[in-house]
Amino acid sequence: MQTLKQKHRPFCFSVKGQVKMLRLDIINSMVTAVFMIIISVLALIPETTTFIVLGGVFGLLAAVCCIADGALIYRKLLFNPSGPYQKKPIHDKIVL
Fold first, then answer.
1. How deeply is 62 buried, as exposed, middle or buried, from its count of CB atoms within 10 A (0-12, 13-18, 19+)?
2. Can you tell me where the transmembrane regions are (predicted)?
3. Could you give the CA distance from residue 37 to residue 51 in angstroms, rounded to a whole number?
4. What is the C-alpha R_g of the chain?
C-alpha cells in the first residue's frame, strides 16, 4: 500500500510563521524603543559635553524610528493578515 507523503514546508516559510515573526518584530520594536528612550534620557540628564547631548538626541530619534517601524508592521498585519495584497486586473478599475 502506497502512502502519500506531505510536502514538508519549514515553519518560517508558511503564512502562520510569517505572521508570528511579524508579531515578534512588533514586540521587538517596542522593547527597543523603550530601551532607547531610557538610555537617551539618562544621557541627556548630566549635559556634560556636546557629544553626549548629541548622542541622547540621536537616541531619541532612533526610538521614534522604532515606534514608527512597529506601527507600520502593526498596520500591515491589521489590513493584510494572511499574505500579499490581491491585485485586481486593470480592467476592473472604475474610471470616473
1. middle
2. 26-45, 51-74
3. 17
4. 22
**Angle, CA of 28, 33 and 37, to the nearest 5°:** 150
Grid cell at residue 43: 544621557
Which of 6, 3, 12, 25 lies closest to 71 in space, CA to CA?
Answer: 25
Residue 45: per-residue pLDDT: 86
pTM: 0.62
CA-CA distance, 15 to 83, in Å (whole number)? 7
All cell numbers assigned to 19: 505572521
Q: How far apart are CA 67 and CA 34, in angstroms?
A: 9
Helices (H), the chain: 15-44, 50-79
Q: Model confidence over 59-70: pLDDT tens digits?
A: 889 999 989 988
